[in-house]
Amino acid sequence: MKQLYISILFLVGLTPLWAGEHYFSVSGDKQAAFKQGVLQSASGTLSVDAAPWKSPSAVYRFSWSTERSRYGLAKPSAKDTRFVDWGGAVAGQNLKTLSVEEWEYLLYDRNNAASLVGLGTVSGTAGMIILPDVVELPAGFSSYVDAKSTFKDNVYSASQWQVMQSIGAVFLPAIGSDEQDGKQGNYWTSSREDNEKAYTLSFQNGFIGIRSEDIARQLPVCLVADAGKSKSGASHVGGQQGARKVVRDGQIMIYYNGQWLNLLGKTAE
Fold first, then answer.
1. Structural domain tally of the chain?
2. What is the pLDDT of residues 63-79, one digit of tens each?
3. Are both 187 and 146 inside the same structural domain?
4. 120-137 burial, b for 16+ CB within 10 Å, e for fewer?
5. pTM for the whole thing?
6. What percent of the chain has pLDDT over 90?
7. Shared-domain flag, residues 267 and 212
8. N or C end of the chain, less CB within 10 A?
9. Residue 91's pLDDT is what?
10. Domain check: are 164 and 247 in the same one?
11. Residues 139, 181: one domain?
């Protein structure tokens, strides 16, 4: 498996502007939209916690999901080979778990891939930051690639992270097994390596990439929704780009369907 050693640094000083749909290429012509947060279980009912960095705990951990393990709430066996997607347990949202091939494309092969993921800390919790295919960064934000990425590279308060979410940033807290919490993130994919192991998205200081773990291990899950096909790799579906507010030359502008507009809706230079 390929490995990625990168970092992103953002300078934060703005209030949230707009939160809309943002898309992430997971193959040459396919995009996904992340469900902000991490899968959680409460009395056997599965839902998505939108702010998991506030209280990472065992409620976010599951065995690899099969017919017998009931979305990873019970222990799977080597003979229990059929994957059952966790997304099916979250009613009415058409969510799914990314495969190892989709994660590899997102990490390594989409346009500007190396500048769109990194490590950081949100409200005291270490984790991984993922940016959408196209990002219109507000004034004062910048990014760079660094071979010595650590959780100390990008530090945000909860309120500062709201700014990042407004431009489509996703945060996965460093949740793994008990001994890994805060040091390493390890998230299940939908792909099995063999009878005993399945692939995971893994990250820690200096590393973002793919590993594999025993299917009986208790690990977290993040979910996405299919966002259609796009050969351009841009963050829109069906040819029409979603509106988003940005700060440009000290003024709040709206970028919509390929045009810059002022707050009165008039075309700007």
1. 2
2. 999 988 889 988 887 77
3. yes
4. bbbbebbbbbbbbbbbbe
5. 0.76
6. 32
7. no
8. C
9. 73
10. no
11. yes
Radius of gyration of the chain (CA): 19
- Of 59-73, 122-136, 222-236, which range is least confident? 222-236
Handedness of CA 12, 118, 238, 35 (dihedral sign): negative
Would you tell me how many other CB atoms lie within 10 Å of the CB of residue 212? 18
Specify the DSSP element, H or E, that contains 158. Answer: helix 158-166
Return the C-alpha torsion angle 153, 6, 231, 87, nearest 10. -70
Digit-coded pLDDT (tens) for 158-205 = 888 888 888 888 999 998 876 667 789 999 999 999 989 999 999 999
DSSP string, 174-242: ---STTTTTTEEEEEEEEE-SSSEEEEEEEETTEEEEEEEETTS-B----EEE----SS--S-BTTBPP
Query: Do 153 and 259 belong together in one domain?
Result: no
CB-based burial, 81-95: b 16+ in 10 Å, e otherwise: eebbebbebbeeeeb
- Judge whether residue 36 has pLDDT over 80: yes
Please, how many CA atoms are within 13 Å of residue 55, restricted to the half-sphere of its CB? Answer: 3
Helix (H) or strand (E) holding 145: none
Q: How far is the C-alpha of 216 from the C-alpha of 221, rounded, in Å?
A: 14
What whole-number distance in Å separates Cα of residue 202 and Cα of residue 209? 5
Q: Is 238 exposed, middle or buried (0-12, 13-18, 19+ CB in 10 A)?
A: exposed
Same domain as 220, residue 93 = yes
Handedness of CA 127, 128, 131, 136 (dihedral sign): positive
Domain hosting 165: range is: 3-234
Same domain flag for 22 and 83: yes
